[in-house]
Design brief:
Strand order of the largest sheet: 3-2-1-4-7-6-8
Order of helices and strands: EHEHEHHHHEEHEEHHEEHEEEHHE
CATH class: Alpha Beta
Shape: globular
Distance between the termini: 38 Å
Number of strands: 13
Radius of gyration: 19 Å
Number of domains: 1
Number of helices: 12
CATH topology: Spore Coat Polysaccharide Biosynthesis Protein SpsA, Chain A
CATH architecture: Alpha-Beta Complex
Largest sheet: 7 strands, mixed
């Protein structure tokens, strides 16, 4: 059996449903373990039963790992969400004796079946994807990680990672730390059975080189729609965050197909796609994030990262 897991609140519910629909298109059996981060998601799945989805509440996770409740009090909500990442596979292994599982960010979407790649991964303890972005964000991307508990080193590295995230999980890169992701940099030195994959073989992302994306439109399996913003009359692809302009070919062949599905889902469930990243209860972080928001807006203007929603119709 193929197993996936992810976590999200109401702001990413429609993106998960798009991800789920993309996997269903390939007609293989799998179970998707969803860690629900708010009551809206809990209620949605109680009303909408999906056969291959098992929902686990945040309270259940916190009950199992009570140190999370301490961390919850000393960081912003988005940072707390990052803190949860290593605990998902640990929980599933401990509670359900699941040895092989792929974590996916909920804003992933598959254009080709990942089944063959996932089955190939069973020879490794963990599979990571390289990330060609600013090194302050880490060398590897958390968005798709394969875990195999048949190897003892998998549990060991997750135990270490979970302790690191409990100690610090900042949304603002500082002193060599960033969220849950920067900690992965040391894994090649810690793991004997680690596999590192290039993004074009697995999952492309907006921080990847445009030529790499265009050259692999027929090869890549999935796409990570990180940074995508959807507004009433336009959307932002997120390429401007990485100091580059998107191309019409990428918009036509990757973004438009995804957005047609996503906007249809949004209309059916009547929920917005919002980000928590610009909110903070800490005054210093609040102003840093406001500055980041202004900087992001100016980049969107400079790189013309603004596309009309009506073009989707």
């Amino acid at each position: 059996m193929i197993n996936f897991c992810t976590y999200f609140d109401k702001n990413y519910l429609s993106r998960f449903l798009a991800l789920h629909a993309s996997l269903n298109a390939f007609k293989f059996s799998y179970t998707f373990y969803v860690f629900s981060l708010d009551e809206f998601v809990n209620v949605f799945f109680k009303k909408n039963k999906l056969n291959n989805i098992k929902v686990i509440s945040l309270k259940d996770l916190e009950q199992e790992y009570k140190k999370l409740l301490i961390a919850k009090k000393n960081r912003d909500l988005i940072e707390y969400y990052f803190t949860l990442t290593p605990f998902l596979p640990k929980y599933l292994h401990r509670k359900f004796n699941i040895n092989k599982i792929s974590y996916l960010d909920s804003d992933m979407y598959f254009f080709k079946s990942p089944l063959d790649k996932i089955e190939e991964n069973s020879r490794f303890s963990i599979v990571l994807l390289k990330q060609y972005s600013d090194k302050k964000y880490g060398l590897y991307n958390v968005g798709w990680i394969y875990y195999n508990f048949d190897f003892s080193e998998t549990k060991n590295i997750l135990d270490l990672w979970s302790q690191q995230c409990l100690q610090l999980c900042t949304d603002i890169p500082k002193d060599g730390y960033y969220a849950d992701q920067k900690y992965l940099d040391i894994w090649p030195k810690k793991l004997d059975h680690l596999k590192i994959e290039e993004p074009e073989n697995y999952c492309l992302s907006p921080w990847d080189n445009n030529n790499m994306i265009e050259d692999n439109l027929k090869n890549f399996l999935g796409y990570h729609f990180h940074g995508l913003e959807i507004h009433d009359d336009h959307f932002v692809s997120g390429f401007s965050k990485y100091n580059k302009k998107n191309t019409q070919k990428i918009i036509n062949e990757i973004y438009f197909p995804y957005l047609k599905i996503l906007t249809s889902i949004d209309n059916n469930i009547n929920v917005e796609n919002l980000s928590l990243r610009n909110n903070s209860t800490n005054k210093f972080k609040f102003y840093i994030k406001k500055l980041r928001k202004v900087k992001s807006y100016l980049k969107q203007k400079y790189y013309k990262d603004n596309y009309k929603i009506k073009l989707l119709k």
